[in-house]
Amino acid sequence: MKNRFDNALRPGNALFYVLFLLFAAAGLYFSVPYGVAGIAVCVILRLATLHRDVDQRRWLQELMSNIQIEGGEAHQPVTNSPLPTVVALATTGEIIWANDAFVEISGNFSGARHMRMTELAPTFETRWLIEGKTTFPGELRMGRSAYQVFGSMIQSGAGQLMMLHFVDCTEYVRLRDEAQTRYPAIAVIAIDNYEELMKNATDTEKSDILAGIDKRLSSWMKDSSAVLRKFDRDKYIFLIENAELDKLAARKFAVLQEVREIQNHEGVVATLSIGIGKDGDTLAESYKYAGLAIDMALSRGGDQAVIKNRYTFEFFGGLSEEVEKRTKVKSRVVANALTQLIRDSSQVLVMGHKNSDMDAIGAAAGMVCAVRAKGKPAHIVVDQEHTMAHELIERLQTLPEYKDVFISAEDAMIMCDFNTLLIVVDVNRPGYVESEALLQSINKVAVIDHHRRAADYIENAVVSLHEPYASSASELVSELLQYLVPTSGILTGEAEAMLAGIYLDTKGFSTRTGVRTFEAAAYLRRAGADASDVKRLFQSSFDQYMERQKIISSARNCGEGVILAVTGEEVDRIAAAQAADELLSIIGTRASVVAFRRGADMAVSARGSGHVNVQLLMERLGGGGNHSAAGAQLKNTTPAEADRLIAQAIEGYLADQQQEEAEEA
């Protein structure tokens, strides 16, 4: 309504002159000469405007008559086009001519001479014409109708004009949208901890647990016209229309909280993982997406729902901490596969993540040990100028077996060939590896990692050992070595490097430890690792201690036990990580986040005590990690911007957590 009123008051419209005339007439009351002069000016302007409009309409009519369009066997003037057609200024979108068909679909256009296209269709823009395209992207909404718009540019004396033709596609859009909402999505639902729930349970208890899960699943989907069928002892298949799936997603898959009410006599709580595939061209493709989604959910620790379409992953839940539930079967299978891959390769390159730490270097050293035992050359790809494991690398380089083992990414690119095997350790995201170009250049890639899988994980790996329940990549590698190398074949320096990796990620065996963690440490101790030598690797310098205290002094409480410290100075990554660990020791702290400058970027390090999933928190900033330790890199960001972004991420995470806790209660 406001746009129409503003349009009516523009100079040149009839209402404008009516109001002008009324004001001039009112002026007669104060001064007859001035009033008469005002009326005369108003009449002259109106006559001049009418004359200009007549000339402009005549010029436009001639212009439109001279523009020919193809129609059947001959060309005809655009004025005779059956399609709604409009000519407007390309700069402002102001309509200067339209045929009768366009007047009919646009309603009151005939009474608004200077109306703009954006007043009829708010989403209209001209970038596509400027870029040389002839079709408007998508459909243009005008009122309750949808149109496909075709256009072209016209050069004239009045400036650059655009000619637009409108094709009504309202019915097509309605049918398409209806088909999309009714198209089925396919889901696979898995009981995460089936073995733990059923362990030492009686037959009656087993039946009660499974019946409780079945009851909650049936209640959850009863109003959605979906189909749920159990096809394995711990798995279900679930078919649902997209529109109904959106409703379940809006409620954050409440069944995840409802199933947690079930537990066995030992107190083990039941959890589900839901993997959903949608938008596939065929049902088979959607089912393939569902398989990828359930793998993603399980690799991130379970107790969550993941939706996979043809482009991205979408995550729901995942707030609970992982529970160790690994067996050595997978390690043995992966060890056998790696043995064959190493034997079939000309050489092996081992690569960790950017700004490598002791876990990445320790795991890499373990894989070099395995490759050496198979008689193949091996190299570790690392940027020695940007690493947090300088002392560990220097220790390894003193060993004769490690002469020229550490190489740069550039040297690795030169020496790799078609038969090279690349083993990626302690990272699963392409953008975070030491050299993404090297990753893309090698065909055979194996991945060994313990971080929760992110949406942009390394795909098409020939072998993948991904266990988010493990404490560290070094723990996983030490398990593999038990099937690859005799204990006597492990160098003391290699055993200590892997033990240092475990020590780092468990904060001195105080967090994220399980039975398998201590088994791995015992194995490395038998291989010659000295715990006192390992601990000396973690001693801080005076400068690091002072940097750590400076970071801690800038910390503030963001509420709900989340501590944030942001510094605009460049500090050592180790000092920042230690500051995050130290902040976590404050009474009542559930998570700590430290941000510091790295060149033009801001690096973020986060630690959690178990109540806050810092991986989900860092994913809001484009990062990742695991439940208790995660990080992110904010590109081209100032400290003030980083502070604002992190605070918003914390606020959003806490709001989601409170909502889930309220729904669970």
CATH class group of the largest domain: Alpha Beta
As residue ranges, the low-confidence spans are 1-9, 69-75
Total beta strands:
25
Radius of gyration: 34 Å
What percent of residues are in strands? 15-25%
| Helix proportion range | 40-55%
| CATH topology description of the largest domain | inorganic pyrophosphatase (n-terminal core)
- CATH architecture of the largest domain, by name, is Alpha-Beta Complex
Largest sheet: 6 strands, mixed
Lateral arrangement of strands in the main beta sheet: 9-10-8-11-12-13
pLDDT averaged over residues: 84
Structural class: alpha/beta
Quickly count the helices.
25
CATH H-level superfamily of the largest domain:
inorganic pyrophosphatase (n-terminal core)
Count of domain modules: 5
Overall spatial form: elongated
Note the gap between the termini.
47 Å
Search tags:
665 residues, alpha/beta, Beta-Lactamase, Alpha-Beta Plaits, 5 domains, 6-stranded mixed sheet, 6-stranded parallel sheet, elongated, disordered N terminus
Protein described:
It is a single chain. With 665 residues, the chain is an alpha/beta fold. It folds into five domains: 2-66; 68-173, Beta-Lactamase; 189-317, Reverse transcriptase/Diguanylate cyclase domain (Alpha-Beta Plaits, 2-Layer Sandwich), CATH 3.30.70.270; 328-536, inorganic pyrophosphatase (n-terminal core) (Alpha-Beta Complex); 542-664, Diaminopimelate Epimerase, Chain A, domain 1. It has a six-stranded mixed beta sheet with strand order 9-10-8-11-12-13. β1 and β2 (74-77) form a beta hairpin. α18 runs antiparallel to α19 (492-505), α19 (492-505) packs antiparallel against α20 (515-526) and α22 (542-553) packs across α23. The longest helix has 35 residues, at 32-66. It is elongated, with a radius of gyration of 34 Å. The two termini are 47 Å apart.
